[in-house]
# Entry
Amino acid sequence: MRADRQEQDLKFTRRALIMSGLGGIAFTGLAGRLYALQVLENERYRLLSEDNQFNYYLLPPSRGRILDRFGVPIAENRDSYRALLVPEQAGDLEAALDRLAQYMPLSDYTRTRILRTARQQERFRAITIEDDLDWQTFSAINMNAPDLAGITPDVGEVRAYPYGAAFAHVVGYVQAPNDEDILNNPREAERLLRHPGFRIGKTGVESAREMDLRGSAGALKTEVNARGRVIRELPDQSEPPQAGQDVVMTLDADIQRFAHERLGQESASAVVMDVNTGELIALVSTPSFDPNLFVGGISVRDYAALRENDHNPLFHKSIQGTYPPGSTFKAVVAAAALEHGLVDPSETIRCTGSTRLGPREFHCWRRQGHGPVNLHEAVKTSCDIFFYEMADRLGIDRLYDMAVRFGVGQEFDIGISGVRSGLMPNPAWLRGRYDEPWTTGHTYNAGIGQGAVSMSPLQLAVMTARVASGRAVEPTLYRNALARPAEHIGLSEESLARVRAGLRGVVHEPGGTSYSLGGLGIEGVEMAGKTGTAQVYSITAEERASGVRSQEDLPWRLRDHGLFMCYAPADRPKYACVVVVEHGGGSSAATRPARDILRRVVARDPSSRPGVFADLSASQRGGA
# Structure
């Protein structure tokens, strides 16, 4: 018995030691874990605890403004009352929208959009129910917020374009980013781009200068209770957003608006440029559209109306449209002939109304002919026969080289997308495009700005500015105080002076193709210019026999384009203006609008008028 008892005591002692050991190990492990949690990982869990107590709300930045050359806003921001919905806080979305419908109307389209968006994105992301609420509706939602779980009234910013259609093509517009926009942006920008109401530039300056205009987001720290309701905001511990930069353009809002109104609903474009600096004063395409419609999302009906309009209101004609320059190109041909010594200014060529080249007859626009004309008279009266001869003497290679000097066929980077280069053809181009040899007939056509020669209104303005200034100015759309003067174009002043004299004669001498304009109408200021007609369709002999004898007898789309390039003052050029009227029926459709726009520019700038510049202080000089 005694031996059995001793053995039992021994077993109990072993078990007690084992249990004590295991308990000691467990206690040591627990103490170690407590030490790790309370000491080693204290900072981590303190931050997690704070995350349970505090929330951070993204603060979108104010978008930078777009200003004209004088600081006038042409794209700005305004307050917008709106209602947001957070699906995970709203519960039954249909029921939540039914409750909201008691205080604001909700269309079937709006309901469908909200429910579709809620299915497609994370439930914690807010959805914009409606933007631009009136004060009465916004107040009603605020007053009844306790009964509208998941629905939050909010004050945001919305983009506004005070000049509407006048700047639509060049400034562009903003819209909510789509999935492709989000993928094309840095990963860290995703939260900002998904923020309700946030907009990015889609076209024009808004798109080209997006990163400058956007700014950077901030974060608002708030204290919340266990249910997630905000108890208080902690601005001292928040990071404010950084507003986007303002972008200052070279455009003059007054001139841009006037040019837009002057062209009206014509399918047309206008470009105004400083001939010495290349600064663009106006860049207009008509008809246009209201960019404010795109900010909140344009309706299908409104967009279809724009797409179906045969005058192409969505098309930026001043930089994307290309047209045969017609007789405006004769200024380049005259400069080339003079510079290469291929014509004496006193030499005359007889224009009988046509000239024969092999089996083909080339006509002058004046069918009865101009009689004997020298270079000055040829530029003034736009004699085609004279310029056929000049083109033939030059040959296409020399004519091509001179055209390039004047900017023909060059693509100018003005800081927005869509600028087209036009075309100055040569034998290499013709072989590559059509596998055909170059002929004298092609040279004749190029000599009067027809055939394959094509230029945008912007290129025509550059060509005009280079004729007027003698410098290789390039267009610019943004103010740059450090811009350097352009290099000289490389032509003798004598050649340029003779071309300019002919262009002045177009407007101010009897027989000039724009003599009926009567000039600018500003005392002491003369203008120079050149008309141009780009043929779209040639009336056949059969059509003439049937009574189709003029442009007015043709359908609108078959009528010739009208062009006019001009600059002023003629004796000390400062501003160039180009107007192109699509299917205007000839140059007369463009001459008066161009004259009126240029007159407005000169009248707005006192330094353009004689006897005034000397009286201006240095701070006043610089013009429009």
About this structure: Residues 58-248 form a domain with the Penicillin-binding protein 2a (Domain 2) fold (CATH 3.90.1310.10). The chain has two domains: 58-248, 253-611. The chain has a mean pLDDT of 86. The two ends are 123 Å apart (CA to CA).
